[in-house]
Amino acid sequence: MKNASIILNAVLLVAVAFLYYKVYNTTSEPVVKPPVSKEGMKIAFVRTDTLFENYKLYKEMEDAFEKERESAEQMVASQENSLKKKIEQYQQQGAMMTDEQRAQREEQLGREQQSFMQLREEIMSKLSDREKLISDSLHNLITNNVREMNKKSGYDYILGYQRGSGIIYADSIHDITTNVLQQLNK
C-alpha cells in the first residue's frame, strides 16, 4: 500500500524534473513562452500522506489486502511446519529403515519440499501481483477523480506534497487535499 504513495511521488518527481529541464534548458533555439493569463499559472497541491490516511476506500483495500496477506502467510507457515515435522520424524526413524525405505522416504520428502517451495513462490507472486493491481487501481482512481475535479477548478498543475518529497514549501492557500478527499470519499 505504500507503493501507491511511492508511485504517486515518482510520477510527480518525473513531472517536476521535466519542468525543471524545460525551464533551464539552454538551447540555441528561441524559447517560445506559452501565453499566461493575468492571474498567472494556477497551481495546487494535495498532501498525499493525509490523503492516504483519510481515504476510506484506500483504508478498506489496505485492510483487506493485509488480511489476505496474513492468511497466505499462515497457510505457508502451516505447510512449512508440517514438512519440518515429517523431516524430523524421518530423522528419528531413519536408522530403523532399510536402505531402500530410506531412499524412498528421502525421495518423497524431496518432492514434498519442492512442492512446498513452488507453492510458497506462487503465493508470494500472487500477493505481489495483487498488491500491484491494488496500487495501480488506486492511483488511476485518484488521478481520474482529480482530473474530473480540475475541470471545474482549472489548475495548470496539481502536485503531490508530503514530507521528504521534492517540494520543500507549499503555501496552505493552494492546498486542495480536503476537496479531493471529499470527492474521493463520496
Topology:
Layout: H1 2-24, E1 43-47, H2 48-54, H3 56-93, H4 99-153, E2 157-161, H5 177-185
Parallel strand pairs: 1-2
Textual characterization of the structure:
With 186 residues, the chain is mostly helical. Helix content is 71%, strand content 5%. The protein has five helices and two strands. The chain has a two-stranded parallel ribbon. The longest helix has 55 residues. The two termini are 21 Å apart. About 6% of the residues have low confidence.
Radius of gyration: 27 Å
Low-confidence stretches: 28-38
> How many alpha or pi helices?
5
Helix content: over 70%
Structural class comes to: mainly alpha
**C-alpha geometry:** elongated
Say how many strands there are: 2
Key attributes of the depicted protein:
single chain; 2 strands; 186 residues; mainly alpha
Short description:
The protein has 5 helices and 2 strands, in the order H-E-H-H-H-E-H. It is mainly alpha-helical and 186 residues long.
